[in-house]
Amino acid sequence: MVIKKIYLCLTLLFFLIITGFGQKANYKQYNFHPPLDIPLVLSANFGELRTNHFHTGIDFKTQRQTGHPVYSIDNGYVSRVKVSPWGYGHVVYIDHYNGLTSVYAHCEDFSGAIQELVREIQKKQQNFEIDYYPSKDSLKVKKGEIIAVSGNTGGSSAPHLHFEIRETVNEHALNPLLFNFKIADTRKPLIRGVKVYALTQEGYRIEGKSQRINVNDANGKYTISGGKLIVPANYTSEKGGIGFAFDAVDQLNAANNICGIYSAALIVDNDTVFKQEMNTVYFSSNRQINTHKDYEEFHLRRKHFQKTFKTIHNPLPIYKKTVNNGILRFNPGSNHKVTYVCSDVEGNTSELSFLLEISEGAVGETENLYEKGKYLFPDSAYMHFDETHYVLMPPGLLYEPTPLIIDYSQGKLTFGDPEIPLQETFKLMLPIDQKHPKEKYYVERSSKYRQYSETGAVHEGWITVWVRNFGTFEVKTDLSPPVIVRRNFINKGSVRGKTLLWSIDDAESGLTDYDIFIDDRWYLLSWEPKKNVFYFEVPQHLQGLKKLKIRATDACGNSSEEIYELEF
Hints:
Blueprint: H1 2-19, H2 21-24, E1 42-44, E2 49-50, E3 53-54, E4 58-61, E5 69-71, E6 76-83, E7 90-96, E8 100-107, E9 109-110, H3 112-125, E10 130-132, E11 140-141, E12 146-149, E13 160-167, E14 173-174, E15 190-199, E16 205-214, E17 216-218, E18 221-223, E19 228-231, E20 241-249, E21 263-268, E22 271-277, E23 280-281, H4 289-292, H5 295-301, E24 305-307, E25 319-322, E26 335-343, E27 349-358, E28 375-376, E29 382-386, E30 389-393, E31 402-403, E32 406-409, E33 412-415, E34 421-431, E35 441-446, E36 451-454, E37 457-459, E38 462-469, E39 471-477, E40 483-486, E41 499-505, E42 511-518, E43 521-523, E44 526-528, E45 533-537, E46 545-554, E47 559-567
Parallel strand pairs: 18-27, 19-27
Antiparallel strand pairs: 1-4, 2-3, 4-13, 5-12, 6-7, 6-10, 6-11, 7-8, 8-13, 9-12, 13-14, 14-23, 15-16, 15-20, 17-18, 20-24, 21-22, 21-26, 22-25, 26-27, 28-31, 29-30, 30-34, 32-33, 33-39, 34-38, 35-36, 35-39, 37-38, 40-41, 41-45, 42-43, 42-46, 44-45, 46-47
C-alpha cells in the first residue's frame, strides 16, 4: 500500500511538472544559439490569429531570399524530419536534453547527415514526400550546427524560417519570444476596435445583437468617441449577459507586419474579469481558435477581434482568469467603467477605457432562441438518413448553435453552411451507381468558390467519407488520368546540366503519386505547388543516352506515363 501511494504521488508530481512547463518555466535560464546568423526580424509572432489555428511559432524574415544557414539552437538529436509540398514543407525537429524540442520549417533543403538521411529514406520509400522519425540519439546535432538552409517550401507564401519550441513530452507549443532570443521590440500593441455582444448563459452570441465601435489612439491610451458606449437594455437577460471582443494586434521593431498580442485583460469596475496569455498552445485544441476569435470578422473583414469571454465548451489553455467565463451580468439602467489592457512579451502596453451605459428598459429573452429541429448544437449529435444519403454528426463539432440546412436535389446533398467551421469530422454516405470499379468513385465537396475532392470507402453500393466542412456533396467518378506536360526540354534532346521541369495536372480526384525512372531505376522527382512545377535535378553521374519514364497517379488509381530518350 505504501509503495502504491509513493507511486501515485510520483506520478502526480510528474504530471504537474510536464503539464505546468508552459506556465511555470524559467524561460530566461536558457542560452540558445540563434537559429539564423542574420538580424532577427519577425514577420509573425506566436499566437497570431490564423485560419483554423493559432500560429504556433515565430516567423523570421530571411531578407526576401532563400539559402541562409539554419542552426540548431542547442545540443540534441533529430527526432523527426518531414518533406511535403504542403504545410511545413521541408521541416526538421530536434529533441534537446532539457525537455524541449525545436522545429525549423519551410526549409529549402537540409544539411550534412540530415540531408543524407532524407535522401536515403526518399529512395527507400520511392517517394518525394516522407515523414520519418529517427531513433533517439541516432543522428545527434550540436549547438550552433548547421542543420538546413532557409527556404520557401510548403504552405509558405514568401521566404522565411518558421521556428517553434515545444515541450518534448507532449508537443505543446511554447512561445519562443519568452526565451532569450535578441529580437528588438519597443512598440506598443495597437487597439483598433471594440465589439459588444448579447450572450446566452453558455456564451453563445445572440444573432442581431452586436455593435462594432471604432477607437481613437493617443499614444497607447485609447478612447471611443465621447468616452461612452451605450448598449440597449435587451442585450441583458435573466440568464445571459454582455460580452466584449477587441480588435488588437502587435508590431515589432524593424517590420510593419501585423502580429498577435501576447497578454490581454478586461477590467470592469476595477475588477479583472478576464485575462489571457499566449504562453502555450496545445495542438489538440488549436482549432478552437474558431470560438476564441470573432470568426466572421476575421474571415470576412480580416479584423482581429479576440473575445474576452468564452463558451462553456472552450478548452483553450490561454485563459488565466475568467469570472463567469467573461460574461458580464448587468442590469438595465446601470453604468460601469470598462478597461481593456493588452501587452507584448517585452511589457509594452496599450489601454482602452470607456464608460459602459446600459439603457433603461426590458431585458432580452434567451429561452426560446433556437427552435428545436431547426438548429444544430455544439453538445448534441445529429443523424439523418434516407435512400439518398446518410449523415452522422457527433457532438462537439460546432462552436455555437447553427441553423440546420439539409437538402437533397438533383443528385446533390447540401448540408450546413460552408462558411461555418467545424472542430472535427462527420460521417457522410452517398449511394453510387455501381457502373464503374469502386476505386473510381469519390465525393466532390463544393463551397462558395471552390470544389474539393473527398476520397472514401465504397461498400455495398455506398461511398463513405469523413469530412470536416459543410457544403454541397455529389458523387463523382474519375476515369481520366493526370495530364503530364514537359516544360523545358524535347524528346531525344540533350539535357546535360539541366533541371528538368514538368506540369502535372489532375482536375478531379487529385494527385497522389509521382515518380521518375531512368533505365528502370527510381530517382527523386520534387514538387513545388506554388509554381505548379515538378522538377528533376539531373545527377552528375548520369552520362549518355538514357530512357526516362515519368509516371503520375491520382486518388482513383488512374495513371499517366511519358517516356523519353534523353542524352545526359
